Amino acid sequence: MARRWTPQRFMTLRRIRVAICAVTVTVACVLGFALTTHKTIALEVNGKKQTVQTYAISVDRLLEEQHIDVKTHDLVQSTSGDILANHAVVTVRSAYQATINIDGKEVPFWTVATSADQLLGFFNDNEEQATKVTVDIKNVYNQLTGGMVINKNGPVEVIADGKTSEAPNGKLPAASILDSKGIVLGKEDRVSVEKNGSSTVLRVKRVTHGTTSKTVSIPYTTQTVYDDSLEPGTTVIRQQGEAGEKKQTFNTTYVDGKAETAVLAKEETTKIAVDEIIAVGPEKPAETPSTSPSDGSSSDADKNDTADKNDSSNDNDQQKTDSKPATKPSSEPSKTSGSSNSGSSNNSGSTGSNQSTPKPTAKPTQTQTSKPTQKPTATSKPNNSGSSNSGSSNNSGSSSHSGLWHPTVAQAQAYARGAAAQRGWTGSEWDALVWLWNKESGWDWSADNPWSDAYGIPQALPGSKMGTGWQDDGAVQINWGLQYIAERYGSPTQAKAYWLKHNWY
Q1: Cα 330–chain centre separation
Q2: What are the tens digits of pLDDT across the range 23-39?
Q3: What is the pTM of this model?
Q4: Do 236 and 230 meet the contact criterion of CB atoms below 8 Å apart?
């Protein structure tokens, strides 16, 4: 007998069906997630390849699972981008700091090159642009830099102490090649690798130190004295000036026998400068000015007379007697004094007694002559400053800056080409990068956007986020710009495409 339908039975069966559906969907989702997120990845770390199974979604998560420590300048590349895909290839290359020389300027350069020849290959195209690039090996016996292979394929040309020889095995480190040639390095000797046409050159430069000296002239100063016994307006040289001399000694660094830098060590005066003394006579009296001021004073007096006549006749008589001596002091000082200041003092003195106005005629000549004695002393100051500047210019030549300090456009592009080539950005990618930064800054390290305060070659906003030395070091700016493009767009061509749509990147 079949069970009868009841509401309770219906609800029970309904709950069972819902539960079965929920379990089925959950199992399907779990299986789907497991099947889609499980990936087989080819992982290469510094040339060592392995195949790993992972459920990681991103490259960072994969490296964390594999306990691979990635530092700031290390290069991480994935064929699927930041999001992992099945059968993707992830490459990790540890970076080390080498020193490259761009047109004589030493620049620290973080590289993942496995040989010096490969590192030079990053800059090969710049030879056509007359930008000379070499790789300096600071310490050939260092395990990291000295262990770098010079040239994987072919021989190496060795130049040291004016002699040229050939090392047949270019796969040896620099230290091994030099030892095989019997070349012993001094503590400060320099080793570099450069390209000479199709050959690779390992060059040793000997560094020595010595002292040099030179004699520098000390300019004499000029002193001016006042002599009232001389004729007015005349000058006489009482003592001829004579320049002094000082001996400067420099600590000089020689590279292969040629002086490279010189630092001022000491200086001593060998001959004292003799001051030039010039005597100056009194100033010439000024020519007698026109009598128009006195006429004006008499006309003013006439006006006062007419006004006083209206008051009383007695006042008019006294006004006439007072006006006569008042005109004399105003004209007499103008004959004896040669300055406008004395004239103004006479005007102020005209309100006082008539006897005090003629007396100051001798005093203004003394105050005037005292001023020229101080003016020539001011001219002597540039002579002193000139001698001190000559010494400071030698010291300023010894100062140096590390990094790609204030690079030219050619130097900046030479550095950027090598850094971009490490990321595989050559050909059209490099052309896109040149185009992009031409639009942004013209490859000018000091480019400052007045509207947004973006700064530098890549126009970072704000510029301070590029790191230490962001205001002056082109290498800091370029390294940050390449990292920014890699993280945000993936490549310069994609960054250029975005720029064309939005007029910024």
Answers
A1: 65
A2: 888 888 877 766 667 88
A3: 0.52
A4: yes
